[in-house]
Amino acid sequence: MKPTLTTASGIHVVDNQNSLSAGPRGPLLLQDFHLIEKLQHFNRERIPERVVHAKGSGAYGTFTVTHDISRYTKAKLFNQIGKQTEMFVRFSTVGGERGSADTERDPRGFAMKFYTEEGNWDLVGNNTPMFFIKDPIKFPDFVHTQKRDPQTNLKSPNMMFDFWSKAPESLHQVTMLFSDRGTPDGYRHMDGFGSHTYSLINADGERVFVKWHLRTQQGIKNLSAADAARLAGTDPDYAQRDLFTAIANKEFPRWEVRIQVATEQQLQEWEARTGWNPYDLTKIWPHSDFPLIPVGIMELNRNPANYHAEVEQAAFSPANLVPGMGYSPDKMLQGRLFGYHDAQLYRVGTNHQHLPVNAPRCPFHNQQRDGSMAIHNGGAEVNYEAVTAQGSNPSGFGHGDKGWALSGVAGRYDSRGTEDDYTQAGNLFRLLPAQEKQNLFDNLAGPLSQVSEEILQRQLTHFDQADPAYGQGVRAAIEKRRTSKA
């Protein structure tokens, strides 16, 4: 039986086809509340899109523990082999708008929300283990270069490489972006990374630092530049379609969850040997130094019932950690601890955690009250906590973390020219097979053929310092491109 149509307040709508008018030709009457409400809601159907990661796809699933890591963390979601935790995952492109193509050359967001018995844990990452910058104060500038020119409203290779060529720390990620992995074949055939350095705390209060990895069990698959461009024109929602269809057909994608761990002393010794800051997001921890340790399996097995409610309104923040987990001195992580939650307050609303996709599955209680869409508003309970005469009994961050020692004079420190931004980028380049090297050269030659000579020469210098063959290959690809157009 078809349900009765009502207004948002539950009042029966008599006629949804004809507006209330003064006579058959109008004008219309302001008293037609259904018409007014219908148009008002229509005008407000779009919440502001994310500044980054605007276009995404999501699904529900489970995380299952396969290996005991209790020696590293007291977090209850890991406390028993075979234990399952419900979760939600959102994949996305990064720089494009909501209507952009899924196959653009761009990093891919890989954000996970675990609905644990101790609260929600959000692991917010990408399909790359590194990033373009190491200090969050550069983030708005970097993102602006990936968006549209303020005059032409066009994407601008000149803007992109002007920024990258002046920030050699970006070379590691730029190399990954313009390799074959810059255009993954959908979301099921790519790896995921927490990227940042986090920490784990065990029942004895001992802390190790950690990197999170998710290895696709579907196998890595990437699109050629030609296929990515073709699909952008013929099926711009390719990755969305692939993920939704696979789950609908019960071809549930799975990822193996692994970690790298290191004590503070081990990281200090590694930094002394390599010269690399272990908390620098533009660097990785080599597997030869810090082997991968298996933890569990993530499986996606249920599509959302409503895209807007569950995917568009999904809100993530790396600040959401459960007891047994902690942060690190990673500057980019420190910036994101503020930035992500603040973005959701603006984009979705003050009470975005009340929405079903964001709400914890465990009991929760706080003194937060009121604001827009206050679904859980505390009822008759008091909205404050009384000060106790004896004082409180604080214990670190509440996660069992005893904290780490801080040192140094407060100030702004520019590491440009004092840190190694080239070796890891060169190592990545040297790992690529010959054909993938050539693809890298050709992929870079396209946008670099459109930049100013000053920017081009500055960027080529970075390639040279990573590996002379890198710079030589890009030069040859640019010359070939120019000759073919002559």
Automatic annotation (TrEMBL):
One Gene Ontology molecular-function label: catalase activity
Example of a GO cellular component annotation carried by this entry: cytoplasm
Top-level taxonomic group: Bacteria
Key words of the record: Heme, Hydrogen peroxide, Iron, Metal-binding, Oxidoreductase, Peroxidase
Catalyzed reaction equations: 2 H2O2 = O2 + 2 H2O
GO biological process: hydrogen peroxide catabolic process; response to hydrogen peroxide
Coiled coil: none
Catalase core domain sequence ranges: 6-393
Listed InterPro entries: Catalase, Catalase_3, Catalase_AS, Catalase_clade1/3, Catalase_core, Catalase_haem_BS, Catalase_immune_responsive, Catalase_sf
Catalytic residues (UniProt): H53, N126
Residues the entry annotates as binding heme: Y340
PROSITE patterns: CATALASE_1, CATALASE_2, CATALASE_3
Requisite cofactors: heme
Entry EC no(s): 1.11.1.6
Role according to the record: Decomposes hydrogen peroxide into water and oxygen; serves to protect cells from the toxic effects of hydrogen peroxide.
Complex and partners: Homodimer.
Family that this chain belongs to: Belongs to the catalase family.
PANTHER family linked: CATALASE
Protein name: Catalase
Organism field: Undibacterium jejuense
